[in-house]
Task: inverse folding
C-alpha cells in the first residue's frame, strides 16, 4: 500500500482532530501525535469548514465483492494475528479476495501494516513502577510537561537483528503499544558505544559520547560539563524553571548527586 492513499477517519478520530484544532494545536503536531497524514487531516478540516459537517460525498462504483461478514472476519483475524503476512491472512480467512482488496477492506476499518515499535523488555516490577508513575502524572498539562528536562543514555548495540517486523493495527496509540504489537529489546551484552543527551520542549542538548567506566563521579562531571551549559543557553522561560527528570533505573539513582543538583537554584528534581 502506498503512503499517499487516503485514509477514512473514524468518528472518534474526527472528534480528536477537531478538539485538538480548537485547542490551538498545529496540524503538523496533530499529524505526528495521531500518526495520521497531514493531507487527511487537512481534507477533514476543509470539509467541516465548507459544509458544516465531515460527511464524505457518496462515491460511484461497482458493488463490493466482499460481504459485511467477510469484512468482520478479516478485521477479527488481523487484530488477533497482528504479525501475519497479507497472503497468509487471505488463507486464514479462506477468502478468494485479492490481496489488494483485503488491504482496502482493512483500511476502511483503520487497519494497515505498521512497523512494530521496539521497547525494552520489562519484568513485572519494572512495568508496575512505570505504570504507577504514568498514573501519577496523568493530569499534567502540556505546559507542565514542557518544563521537564529529560535525560537518558543510549547504547549502540553490536549484532542487532536488522529484520523489520510488520504488524496489523489501527492508527491509535492503544494498538501501537499492545504487547503483541511490540518487539521486545533485550539489553545488549556487547556495547560498542554509549551516549548521553537531554532535551526540554523543542530544545536539544549535544549528544555526548561516554567512554570508560561510568561511576558516580564521572557521571556528575558529565552533568556539570554538559547539562549546565545546555540549561544556561535555554530561553529565559525554560531556564528559570528547569525540572530534571532521569530514567528510574537503579543505576541512575546511584549516580545522581542530589546534593549537587540542589545547589543549582534553577534546577528541581522530578
Result:
Amino acid at each position: 500500500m502506498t503512503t499517499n492513499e487516503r485514509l477514512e477517519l473514524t468518528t472518534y478520530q474526527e472528534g480528536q482532530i477537531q478538539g485538538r484544532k480548537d485547542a490551538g494545536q498545529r496540524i503538523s503536531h496533530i499529524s505526528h501525535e495521531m500518526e495520521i497524514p497531514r493531507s487527511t487531516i487537512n481534507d477533514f478540516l476543509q470539509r467541516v469548514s465548507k459544509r458544516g459537517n465531515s460527511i464524505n460525498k457518496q462515491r460511484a462504483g461497482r458493488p463490493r465483492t466482499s460481504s459485511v461478514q467477510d469484512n468482520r472476519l478479516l478485521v477479527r483475524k488481523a487484530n488477533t494475528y497482528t504479525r501475519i503476512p497479507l497472503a497468509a491472512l487471505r488463507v486464514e480467512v479462506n477468502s478468494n479476495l485479492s490481496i489488494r482488496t483485503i488491504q482496502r477492506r482493512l483500511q476502511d476499518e483503520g487497519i494497515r501494516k505498521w512497523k512494530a515499535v521496539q521497547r525494552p523488555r520489562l519484568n513485572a516490577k519494572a512495568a508496575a513502577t512505570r505504570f504507577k508513575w504514568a498514573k501519577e502524572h496523568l493530569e499534567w498539562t502540556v505546559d507542565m510537561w514542557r518544563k521537564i528536562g529529560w535525560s537518558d543514555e543510549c547504547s549502540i548495540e553490536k549484532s542487532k537483528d536488522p529484520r523489520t517486523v510488520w504488524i496489523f493495527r489501527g492508527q491509535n496509540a492503544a494498538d501501537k503499544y499492545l504487547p503483541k504489537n511490540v518487539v521486545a529489546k533485550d539489553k545488549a551484552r556487547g556495547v560498542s558505544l554509549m551516549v548521553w543527551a537531554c532535551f526540554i520542549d523543542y530544545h536539544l542538548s549535544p549528544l555526548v559520547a561516554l567512554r570508560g567506566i561510568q561511576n558516580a563521579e564521572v557521571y556528575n562531571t558529565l552533568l556539570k560539563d554538559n547539562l549546565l551549559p545546555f540549561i544556561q543557553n535555554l530561553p529565559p522561560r525554560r531556564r528559570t524553571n528547569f525540572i530534571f527528570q532521569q530514567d528510574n533505573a537503579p543505576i541512575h539513582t546511584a549516580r545522581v548527586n542530589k546534593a549537587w543538583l540542589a545547589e543549582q537554584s534553577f534546577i528541581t528534581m522530578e
